[in-house]
Fold:
Amino acid sequence: MSSSSHDPTELEAELDGWDELVEYDSDWDQEEPLEEASPSLASPSLADEKNGDSDGEKDASLKARLLINPNKAGTDGVDRDKINKIIYEASKGSPFFLNEQRRDQAITERINELLAKANELRAMDLSFENKVVKEKVKVIEATREVGRPMSLDEGINNTLNVHAASTLSKYDSVAYLDLTEYMKGHPDRDVAEVVEELRAEIHRRTRLTASAGIAPNKMLAKVCSDVNKPNGQKLLSQDQAAIDEFLSQLPIRKVPGIGRVSERVLQALGIKFCTDLRGHMVLLYKLFSPIMFEFFVRVSLGIGSTHVESEWERKSISTERTFSTMSDPKAMYEKLRELSQSLAEDLDRTKLKGRTVTLKLKEASFRVYTRAKTVDRFVHSADDLFTIAKPILATAIATGKEKDGGLKIRLMGLRLSALSSRELSEGGIIRVSALPPRNV
Structure:
């Protein structure tokens, strides 16, 4: 079933640096870690930031970038204040700390600009905009789809993709299974029992625990899979009243697609839980783009996609390496060749090809550089990947020579996106040679 929800990559472009939104099944590490925000050192309000630039306020804002995510599953019993203090003090003066300090200052300046605009809007007559927003919310709400997607997640960084008949395939990070048709065909079965059996089967075959979320759509299922980690499950009813109750207690940071920067912005506007978004719709409509506004509406109503993608619909595939600081261009090209070979092997295993190659570099100062090149044909070989990415690396090296000491990197990554199955021709038609032989 299709969905009108936006691709997270579109939202990322719309945010223009506000946040790092992630796809539910993305395997490409984000440019900045998404699991760090301080519970006890919550981001100061926009008003607080505007009214003073004291060292205490700056420290609180920076610590919110450096420290652990309060919504991370399994951290309930952790002494966060103690850990936060250790991390902050140990990071001071490091390249990572200085980079985060620089980024935090830039974000604070942009938030202050947003605050000024928000204050202006609050003083205006927005009755017309209120009518417009109500109509838009009705239209978006009409797109609600109801299914029975299940999200499988795990406790030790390994999960399994699951196919319809409870068969298991390769290891991955998160898997989705649409149980709607299965449950229609087995009305005597209880969905919670089915999922319990599936998790037990995963453990029997792999000795790995798996948590699961069962909900009307993928977004809610993913959130529910975090509730009873590392070896439990959460069932959310399709009843809208139950969904609303769940959302009223769900911190916005728990939603896939809302990271630490978006959380900071929304909390400054008085939005802490998902249903809080409903009371600020006009302001969100005026402050953000149409794509972001629709995203916030969908989150506030618990609307998400029910479409479970197949293997060949994967968005991207990537590989990366972290190493000690590297400054020799020859070594960088050798590392790129190594990554090209590694990515090509993954593409062979998954029988995928793609058209957009992205090179990711993290400098010794922790600044991240990503550039992409899209070609007019599908590629998958190591030679093709290296040939396309090499000029991107050459540009980065040349630009680095203009700096003191030249380019120095500590991480390199390579990604291929705009994917298609190799069993499809350029026009999207399945090749006859890829079909099984006909029985005679």
Q: What stands out?
A: The two ends are 35 Å apart (CA to CA). DSSP finds 15 helices and eleven strands in the chain.
